[in-house]
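Fold it.
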Amino acid sequence: MSISVPLKAALSGRCGVCSEGRLFEGFLKLKPNCDHCGQDFTVADTADGPAFFVGFFIMIVLAPFYFILPAAEIPLAAKVMGYSVVLGATVGLGYWLLPLAKAALLNLQIYHGAEQAQFED
């Protein structure tokens, strides 16, 4: 199986093994296993990885606007409207990208057989 299969499945919130079963039972709550192929989703844990990558991406893309708006010589009403638009874009991008990132990282962990670190006694 090509690495593009789990990534394509992640874009639609599907299992990276069979591309049929759904990954989520809520907004970000994963199902315990795939309804179609039975793949166990508890073998991989994305932890805070998706939130870090999504937050960092949004910061890189939108942070300049938070610094440019105060320096812009425009009326106060335009600045407030600009901040409202940028804040809406920040929240909207976060809600849109977070499930995609979580699905992609989970599918890639399962594809590569990655597990949590375990310390030996």
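The mean pLDDT is 91.
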